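With this grant's support, we have settled on a layout for protein records. A representative record follows, to show the layout.
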Amino acid sequence: MQRKNILVLLFWLAYSQVLITMQASIPASGATLAGDPLDTEVERRAVRFFWEQSDPKTGLTSDRAGNKEGSAPNVVASVASTGYALASLPIAVKHGWIANDIAFDRALVTLRFFLDVMFHEHGWFYHFVDRHTGLRVWKSEISSIDTALLINGALLCAQRWPGTEVDRLANTLYDRMDWNWMLTNGGSHPEKLLLCMGWNPENGFLKNDWDHYCELMTLYLLGLGSRTTPLPTASWTAWKRNEVSYGGRTTLAGGPIFLHEMAQALYDFRGQRDMMGWNYWNVSREAVQINRQYCLDNASHHKTYASDIWGINAGDFPDGYKAFSAPGDEDGTVSPTGAIAAILFEPELAHRAEHTMLARYGNKIWGRYGFGDAFNVDRNWYDTDVIGIDLGMALLALEDVHSRLPWKLLARHPRLAIAWKRAGFHRSGGSNLQNLNQTFRPHHRQ
C-alpha cells in the first residue's frame, strides 16, 4: 500500500510539472480599503504570504514563514493555512492583486491535489504535512478543525467560481467527509453528540471532543450542512456555553482572542440568535472588551500593554508557542493580528491598535508579510515569523468589514444555508446590526 502511494505521488509530481507552473507577483499597490491604506497593506501582504508560501504544484501552504526578506522557506504546511490560502484567492481577485484565471488555476491545482493525492481518513486530513509532497510530518493528527478550515476555504472558492470544476471539486471534498465517523469515534460510541478533535494511526481517536464554546462553530455548521452524513441537530446544542466574567462584563470562554474571531470571520453572526437564544456576535464583542481591559489592568506589570496596544492570543511568545488567556495566564506578549481581527466587533479599537503598534514599533514588528505574529517589549522580543492562520483571520476580518465578501460567498452556499437553519439562527430584530441586542444570553435559558 505504501509503495502504491509513493507511485501515485511520483506520477502526480511529474504530471504537475506540465499541468501548470504559476508565477505571479502581488502588485505593490491597489485600491485602498475605505480610505485606510494600512488596512489595504495588511490585506495585500497577507495575500502575498498565501501566494508565495503555497507550493505551485500542490497548493499546500506553509504553516508559518520568516517575515524578513530572504528568509529560508518552511517546508511544513498546515491544512488550515491551506484553507486560508484558498479563501484569500477571491479577495486577491477582487482587489486586482492576482488575475482571475491565475487564481482559478491555483484553486484548481490545490483541490485536485487534495482529491487525487493527499492521504485522508474518511475525508479528514492530517494537520501538518510536507508542502511539496503532502506526506504527514511530526506524527501529526488527523484534525477535525483544520480539515473544516480547509473545506471552508474550498467552499469560498466554489462560490466565487460557481458551475466550474473548482465548484465541483470543492463540493466533492465536502461530500466525502464522514461526519458520523468523527462523531461516533468510528462507530464505537454511537450515542455521542460531540465531534472528536481528531485521530491518529498510532492511538486511534483523540481523548478530547469539541465540547465547549470556541472556534468550534465553523466545524459544527459544516457538519449540520453535510449532504451525505449530516450531524444531528442535537450536536449544536450539546456543547457547553461556558460563561466567564471580568471587569463587570461577561462573555463565553474568554481565553485567547482567536476563539472569537475564527468562526466569525467566515460566518456573519451579526444580529442573529441560534435555537437556544444565544447571540454570538455580542458574546465576541464582550470578549474583545475584556481582552483589552485585561491588558490595561496588567499594564503596570508589562511594558508591552497600553491603551491601544493589546491582544492576548494563542501564538508565538519568547519561549515558543502558547495559548494565553484573558482573563488568565499571560506574560505581556501581544498578537497584532489578534487585535486587528477584532475589527469584526470593535472597529475603532482595532484600528487604533493597528496604527499605534506600527507607529511605535515599526520595522521591529513589520515585514514582507505584514505584522509579525507577536511581540513582547519586556523581553525585548519581536517575532521574526508570521503564522498562516493568524494572517488568514486578519485578512478575512478586514475584508468582511470593508466589503463583506467572505461572508457573502459562504452565505450563498446552499448546504451552509441549510446548516444555518438547522442551528435555528434567526434575526434578533431591528436593523442596526452594530447596536442590536446588547445582551447575548438566551431570552429563556435551556
Q: What stands out?
A: The CA atoms of residues 90 and 157 lie 7 Å apart. Confidence is low (pLDDT under 50) at residues 6-24, 28-33, 430-437. The longest strand covers residues 243-246. The longest helix spans residues 2-19.
